[in-house]
UniProtKB/TrEMBL annotation:
It comes from the Eukaryota. InterPro entries: ARM-like, ARM-type_fold, Mo25. Belongs to the Mo25 family. GO terms for molecular function: protein serine/threonine kinase activator activity. This is Mo25-like protein. GO terms for biological process: intracellular signal transduction. SUPFAM superfamilies: ARM repeat.
């Protein structure tokens, strides 16, 4: 401060405190890990919660920066390496339920950022997740807890950036859970789960194609073993589950999101073999024909983009041809009432479908 008696000469107060040394990213990770370990085993972790909150906020500051400065690449890299080397990510995920709401948000952002660091750090994150896939189980089951669903859901979506994580979640035992999560009574949780479900089925195209082809037929192994004594077994199909639980849902949002997602999956070239199997099913065709009559214009449009695949199929099974010919007049009237002149692509596709239906006949 300036002393008036010395006119312009700077004088230092004898009460000034020395500047606090800034902690390095490595120091922060080690301190966070130590506190998480201590609090995990402590009967009363509340006394450490304040310091833990400050540490997690400081971790977030390094990764995201603030209004005054951008994050430092060197600091982010150091923090990321230490986080995965010291297994701090596991502790933070497991300890999340004990954190207060604001600190959960900060912790979620920290975990999210660690998954999308630039190469080669992203390889380190991917290798860590591959060796700790049980953490993915925790993140998935988070949708069952309304207090944690959106936090664990955000973490899960970021972890799906890694192909190895996506392949794991695409396994039938994990994927089946999402048919419940996307219909959660809470709109926010259902929307978040739907977003994750869509990301899972569209991000890693080759992995999705391989998984859907391999697991087109799902067999519940536990029931299969039981079947040998009971004389029956249960076989579930991915698209049967998709059709029955999502496309036939009475919830408008669930149904519309499902139809849009189905179109994204089937129209992707990498899923051509899956698409061929889908459009050869008469049950699938009947569901799409019913969706064409849905009161919602949006659902009608999205359903049309899937229905047209059945009509365009050059190798239609006889039962598909029979259904289309039997319902030809109704379909032509229905499609004739679809007047959406603002979408030229839709109108072109519709004209082609109408032309194909008009000449379609049963072969002797």
């Amino acid at each position: 401060m300036l002393c008036l008696s010395t006119l312009g000469k700077q004088c230092v107060s004898t009460n000034a405190k020395p500047a606090k040394r800034l902690r390095t990213p490595t120091d922060l990770v080690h301190k966070t890990q130590a506190l998480l370990l201590y609090s995990k085993n402590s009967l009363n972790p509340a006394t450490q919660m304040t310091e833990l909150t400050l540490l997690i906020r400081e971790l977030k500051l390094i990764l995201y920066g603030d209004d005054a400065s951008e994050p430092s690449e060197e600091a982010c890299a150091e923090l990321t390496r230490e986080f995965f080397k010291e297994d701090t990510l596991r502790l933070l995920v497991i300890f999340l339920p004990k954190l207060n709401l604001e600190t959960r948000k900060d912790a979620t952002q920290v975990v999210a950022s660690l998954q999308r660091q630039p190469l080669p750090l992203r390889f380190q994150a991917s290798r860590y997740m591959e060796a700790n896939l049980d953490l993915v189980d925790i993140l998935i089951s988070g949708y069952e807890d309304p207090q944690l669903a959106l936090h664990y859901g955000r973490m899960l979506k970021e972890c799906l950036r890694h192909q190895i994580v996506a392949a794991y979640v695409l396994e039938p035992s994990q994927l089946k859970k999402f048919f419940d999560y996307v219909q959660h009574p809470s709109f926010d949780i259902a929307a978040d789960a739907t977003d994750t479900f869509k990301d899972l089925l569209t991000r890693h195209k080759s992995t999705v194609s391989e998984s859907l082809s391999k697991n087109y037929c799902w067999v519940d192994i536990s029931l299969l073993f039981l079947s040998f004594s009971l004389g029956w077994f249960l076989t579930e199909y991915f698209f049967t589950e998709f059709n029955q639980r999502l496309l036939k849902s009475t919830n408008y949002i669930t149904k519309r999101q499902a139809v849009k997602l189905l179109g994204c999956i089937l129209l992707d070239r990498s899923n051509s073999s899956v698409m061929t199997r889908y459009v050869n099913s008469k049950d699938n065709l009947m569901i799409l024909m019913n969706l064409l009559r849905d009161p919602s214009r949006n659902i009608q449009i999205d359903a049309f983009h899937v229905f047209k695949l059945f009509v365009a199929n050059k190798n239609k099974p006889t039962e598909i041809v029979s259904i289309l010919v039997t319902n030809k007049s109704k379909l032509l009237r229905l499609l004739g009432a679809f007047v959406y002149t603002d979408d030229e692509v839709f109108e072109t596709d519709k004209d082609q479908v109408v032309d194909e239906l008009a000449i379609l006949e049963l072969q002797d």
